[in-house]
Amino acid sequence: MEAGKGGQRGCDKRGRRRFGHRASLGRAYRCRKAKRPQTTPLRAIGWSVIVYGNSLANGRVMNPLIELIAPEPKHAKHWHVWRNQPLSKLYNPMLDQTPDQLSERLSRSQPDLSAGAQQEFRWIVHYSGEPIGTVSLNEVSYRQKHGAIGYHLDERFHQRGFGRIAVSMLIERIFAGTDLHRLIATISAPNIASIKLIEAVGFRREGLLREHFLIGGSYVDVFSYGLLRGEETTHQR
Ligand SMILES: CC(C)(COP(=O)(O)OP(=O)(O)OC[C@H]1O[C@@H](n2cnc3c(N)ncnc32)[C@H](O)[C@@H]1OP(=O)(O)O)[C@@H](O)C(=O)NCCC(=O)NCCS
Q: Of ligand 1's atoms, which has the minimum distance to the CA of residue 153?
């Protein structure tokens, strides 16, 4: 079995257990305590000065510079890579789309929330100026005042708290920029990371959609989550 960069099987270089690693499926084990990482200069969001933040021992970063920006055609190739990463394909009924098709989709889903009857709005998640994922508002019903959200990060940036920050920012932006009253999220029952994230930002589990997704030839149960305006949890960022 392959050892993590920290030298211990099933552990990453920061000393955290590697979820999904074969070692983490067996008996319980503890990773050696991680060394505190070096101090890293980071610009805090919304601050006009440069501040210095510490990476925390659990891999999270204080005041990471996460931004949601409008998609450009050049982001299509990144989106294509993220969609084809193992966890995305494992938990989501992903349509096979080429970078050209995704580029066309990006041009139709510009994040101008005041744009009339648009059904999909998409933002690229930037971390320190680098594209690391995407968040979206889809299936908007302007009459019923609800819509669905989606989110997706490059696997290299998982488990650092970035997903939660980006989704919090998405929710804040949707409620500030529209009169939508309710957001929904549908999540494969085994997708623990997504379930933890959505509950952390305030969504409540409202139901189980039995065998709702067809992924890789198998039917998968899906949890349905909902969030009403005013129920969102805000997070430090
Ligand atoms: C879902 C996703 C966006 C989470 O992003 P992330 O940046 O890793 O999430 P965060 O670091 O903010 O973590 C959120 C919570 O999930 C937990 N978590 C993250 N990855 C995990 C994993 N692989 N297994 C178990 N828990 C995990 C974190 O510990 C955290 O829980 P906590 O609040 O109790 O500490 C990311 O896993 C992803 O892009 N997955 C592939 C696409 C996908 O499935 N999107 C969801 C469609 S519904």
A: 39
